[in-house]
Amino acid sequence: MNSPDSCWLDTGPHWTGGRTPLPARTGIAVLGAGVMGSTLAYWLGRAGQQPLVLERNPSPAMGSSGRNAGRMIQGGNAQHALAVEKFGHAEALAIYRATLVNRDLMREVTAREGLDAARVPTAKLDLADSEDEALELKRTAEALRADGIDAEWLDLPEAREVFGATLPDTVLGGLHRPDQDAVHSVAYVRGIAAAAQRHGARFSFGVTVTSVERAPGDDGWLVTTDAGQVVAEQVVVALNAWTPRVIPELAPFITPVRGQLVQTAPVPFRIPQWGLDRGLVYGGQTPDGSLLIGGLRNTVPGRDEGIEVPPGSNTPAFDQPLADRLAAVLPALVPEAAGVPVTRAWSGVMAFTPDRCPLVGARPGTEGLWVMAAFNGHGMPYSQVVPQQLAERILGGRGDGIPAAFDPARFLGAGAP
Ligand SMILES: Cc1cc2nc3c(=O)[nH]c(=O)nc-3n(C[C@H](O)[C@H](O)[C@H](O)COP(=O)(O)OP(=O)(O)OC[C@H]3O[C@@H](n4cnc5c(N)ncnc54)[C@H](O)[C@@H]3O)c2cc1C
Questions:
Q1: At residue 403, what are phi and psi to the nearest 5 degrees?
Q2: Mutate to test the pocket of ligand 1, among 38, 64, 204, 376 (most ligand atoms within 8 A of CB)
Q3: Residue 16 — very low, low, confident or very high, per pLDDT cuts 50/70/90?
């Protein structure tokens, strides 16, 4: 079944930014106008460049970025204590710190550009309903505090207070992290894209990129599209799960994964962003007060991971039984929401890597070809810092705010063709 549009796509500002005809040559071409490509264009524009953004859809944010839950949850994909075990302390901290820098940058950029992204201050409450998970979250609270990051474990009575609604007795407590943000995803991305254009970026919508190869004579990169070809000195591939279509050697390391969300009518109370069962079911609240519930991919093994996104489509097929199961989670977790109608549900595609870290940096062994993709269902908390730092690298700077764990060389080695 085709997915309905998200609430963001339905209510977001319309912005198409015109259709720059393809020039024969350009300095920097950015492929994809999701949150990553649009924000990169913004930072390149602010640095005095005129990047050319090529996007298949008629507007920004029609892929994953306009179909997410709008949550900017700090930290990487793994809880901090587990990230320390997996990557070592320095790298785990670099990942977490990047998202804190992101929080500040996002607030600064939205204010500076007068961008109405309907930002809502919120908190994150990771709930545990097993002793194992509670232990993991308590360890994370300690590890974060040891690193000077505001976090605490709350037993059930305190967790209920922070949650602002009744939690069932099966919940043991939760990891509480204040000072988070949620935004209207489409307003955020289209606002950034419009700001990028004001700073000099050029957008060409309705253009599908089919390949990127070395230009004849080793003169930059030949970008072939259904609207013609352009030679770019540098190319950044920000195509989420579609990235392997232009960098095929990344196919073994990028798994397309379906995500689905259901949305209720607005409720008269506010709850923080929450996660349960190690984030496999999660939720949040839109600025207008409706509740969002997503996840449960673990209940349909093999049906969501590795799913096909048909060519020309923005999202995998929508699964009504999964939407029904998501809707059933809510009254059990938040009794106050019992009887509140579900008004909408939709799907989107995420791109997962084997180690759940994004792919950001130079394609190894080549000059001027960059990748910024595969955010493992968690791109928003990197949506300023990663494009800003990558812009710096593209322009010859260090860009060392991008965690080393994100380097594509970890999969491709140094000898890519
Ligand atoms: C249901 C769901 C809920 C989520 N919730 C959250 C959340 O709450 N918080 C969070 O941090 N993350 C969340 N995510 C993940 C988040 O949406 C992504 O990490 C983020 O949007 C990735 O941005 P992007 O720019 O890389 O990808 P996209 O937004 O998908 O952008 C890629 C762009 O490339 C374009 N494109 C593709 N192929 C071509 C081509 N050949 N030529 C030209 N253009 C092309 C697409 O049209 C698209 O616009 C969620 C995802 C889903 C699906």
A1: -55, 140
A2: 64
A3: confident
Q: Give the predicted TM-score (pTM) of the model.
A: 0.97
The residue ranges of every structural domain in the chain are 7-67+186-253+355-412, 121-180+255-352
What is the atom index within ligand 1 of the atom nearest the CA of 376?
Answer: 19
User: For the residues 223-235, what does the mean pLDDT come to?
Assistant: 97
| Cβ neighbourhood burial of 152 (10 Å; 0-12, 13-18, 19+) | middle
Q: Are 12 and 66 spatial neighbours (Cβ–Cβ below 8 Å)?
A: yes
Question: What is the fold, at CATH topology level, of the domain defined by 7-67+186-253+355-412?
Answer: FAD/NAD(P)-binding domain (3.50.50)
Nearest CA to 140 out of 94, 96, 171 is that of 96
What is the percent of the chain with per-residue pLDDT over 90, rounded to a whole number? 83
Distance 62 CA to ligand 1 centre (A): 8
Residues sharing a CB contact under 8 Å with residue 10, sequence separation 6 or more, in sequence order: none
The protein residue whose alpha carbon is closest to atom 14 in ligand 1 is: 377
Q: Mean per-residue pLDDT for 248-273?
A: 95
Residue (of 106, 109, 279) closest to 181 by Cα position = 106
Q: Is the pLDDT of residue 417 over 80?
A: no
* CATH no. for 121-180+255-352: 3.30.9.10
